[in-house]
TrEMBL record, chain A:
GO cellular component terms attached to this protein's record: cytoplasm; plasma membrane
Recorded name of the encoding gene: reps2
Keyword Oxidoreductase among record annotations: no
Biased composition regions of type Pro residues, renumbered to the chain: 513-524
Annotated protein name in UniProt: RalBP1-associated Eps domain-containing protein 2
CDD domains to which the protein is assigned, alphabetical: EH (cd00052)
Feature: compositional bias, Polar residues: 459-468, 526-545, 590-599
TrEMBL record, chain B:
Superkingdom, natural source: Eukaryota
Protein name, per record: Trafficking protein particle complex subunit 2-like protein
Primary location: cytoplasm
Organism: Erpetoichthys calabaricus (Rope fish)
Family: Belongs to the TRAPP small subunits family. Sedlin subfamily.
InterPro entries tied to this protein: Longin-like_dom_sf, Sedlin, TRAPPC2L
Lineage: Eukaryota, Metazoa, Chordata, Craniata, Vertebrata
Keyword Nucleus part of the UniProt annotation: no
CDD domains the UniProt entry points to: TRAPPC2L (cd14854)
Amino acid sequence: MDPGLGTTSGGLYLSLSENEQRRYTDLLHTLCQPDSSGKVPVSKVGELFRASQLPAETLHQITELCGAKRLGYFGTRQFFFALKLIAAAQSGLPVRIESIKSELPLPQFMGLKNDSSELRISSHSKSAEISGPQSGMLAVKIPRPTLIKNTKHSEGMTEKQEPWSPPLSPIGSPPHSPGYQSSPLCSFGKQRSSTDHIEVSSETKHSSLTATLKEGVSSSNYGISTSHSHSTALKLQSMDRSTEEISSVYPDDLWRINEEQCEYYTVQFKTLQSDLSSHISGSVAKKFFTKSKLSIPELSHIWELSDVDCDGALTWHEFCAAFHLIVARKNGYPLPETLPPTLQPSMLQMDGASQEPKHNNAFFSASFELPPLSHIQKENSEEINAMESSHMPSADADVSSHERQSDSCKSAVSLTMIPEVKGTPTENLPFLGALAKRGNLKHTDRTQEMDPHHKSWTRPRSYSSTSIDDAMKKSEEPPTPPPRPQKTHSRASSLDLNKLFQQNNQGGKSAWLPPPPALPPRPLPSQVTMYNSGSDGASLQKAGHQSNFADFSKYIEESETSQTQPPIKPIRRKHRPESQNLESLETAASLPSSTSVSGSKPHLPVQKQSSKVKKATQTAIRKNKETNAVLARLNSELQQQLKEVHQERIALESQLEQLRPFSFL
Amino acid sequence: MAVCIAVIAKENYPLYIRSIPAENKLKFHYMVHTSLDVVEEKISTVGKALVDQRELYLGLLYPTEDYKVYGYVTNSKVKFVIVVDSSNTALRDNEIRSMFRKLHNSYTDVMCNPFYNPGDTIQSKSFDTMVSGMMLQAC
């Protein structure tokens, strides 16, 4: 702001009341342990500032005003100045030098930490987090530049540096104040150290929440020795961490599970159910979630939200969603009415691409460390180390965990930084390799599992299954209809015969016979003519039957032209009207003679072709036989119908006669 | 369409009862209570051996001047009772059946929740939503 401020701050006489003096000094000494140069560690200042719950912009201004920014450090004077300004800001006064001239109420800080830990600094630095959206987080940027110096994980941090970003509004408001968040962590640490001094914020809004958390913490104290409580403690810890994460995130992202959270949830899932692809039963999940100390109705509601397929069991994704909801609820966020889209299993499946179920146990411990090291801030990695060392199945892991811890601090900043972190010591490589794997691998194996959950899963209700197969089979029917009978055998045989007549008249004999070779036609006409002449002669012999002869001649011609043998002729003629039967027989009798007579004459010249003619004749005979059979059948059917009709007629007539006497009357 | 919907436990105490309009609550409670007798009567007529054949949907339990009461009982003797307005003549049997089916499905969803103890009052929000949907269809 004012370049002269530095001097101003230096030259301005800061009037502090006795109370203020005392308070400030206390704060200075207890919280912030200035090093030999008289500078207050910026990290502590940052913590304190955050605890004041002022918007970061205000804190920024305060820092500038009190001259620390300009000087680059917080001296005692600057510190006191800052405190006073904080008090002013909290009282609602603008952040100005003038406002602190009067006596102000003591600044309020929430949940000040008594622990000194450089590692908390590192957690601060980490706060600059990974996940972009969380850049809005509360993380105070003041300490950043100095943090780099202080932290032992400078490598990773340098990459993490973020410019002083403008503060976000949620900072001032949310129930999850940093102090609030840190208090349980503090308490955790204190469990170890067996002292518990948590300064609960004076703000009532948060007090209840802190109280509940403290309860949880204290309850976890009892269980700390048992493995049972480990999960609880971890849960709380994770909740705190994720709390912080959530608090810093925009409300939209509240329902988005991060990779770290996901990892942590996965770990917890594994403790309950080793197979990631199967379900956690309802009772097991109930026991686990009850540890979160949420009320039963709320847990019930959370279950309702997260168990999308309503099967009384939780899949991995459902479990993550439920866990996430619990964490959110613990932090004071009201539960949504419906499951947010980002938490739905279908969604989680995509997000969970970084998860690889095929972890080695060695990697488990590593991943175990990750969530604690989540992007979020005030993590006391020492605490975490201590925490997790107690959870490590093997004591050996402690040492390695510490090492890994430190290294994973770098890497944990973001999984996306993996390629950059590859320069780390070799012992980290397997760990990082696992991280890379997790980061890169897709969740192909999950897709299948999640497919049923993708769809709007409704429990299969009883309903009759449509017999699609049956319908398919039916469509295959009907088989091809039986081949149609030959035209010659059809009912309209008479028509065919007419055709025959026409054909005969035309003399195109070959057309009528389908199989006959082309050769026969030649001799046929000659034979036909012979036969015709013969038949004519036969017909002429019977002058008395001229009327019939006309028909017969035709038939005879036909039969001869069809090259049927004489015996067939009479059979054919039987199909004629009954009145002509005798005549036909007679003519048939006469015909053979005539044909034989006529046949003998041309016998010699025809001899050569007789064999072919015979074959053709035989086929024709066969055909004619079939035709005859059909016609005979037809005739019998018609005869039967005629009889029936006759009988009906008789019956009707008798009825009529019966009725007649009545009608006459 | 429904004016009042109630879920009654095996021991004949209500697990869930909700009615609109809100001022006639007592009347509807009483009506549901009286309908329990009819339900008992209906399920007792079928012999023990025929439990499987007993249909879940009981149909119209009894009509009053203003209302008609329909009943449905599950295999675990949990009863659902729906009270509809008599003036709502367009309501067919099929629709009532579908309403009961929905109720039954929602009830099973509630039971699947491990945090729900059978015998507790139903406080599930999804169940409430479903019931509201059913009750407000016609209104």
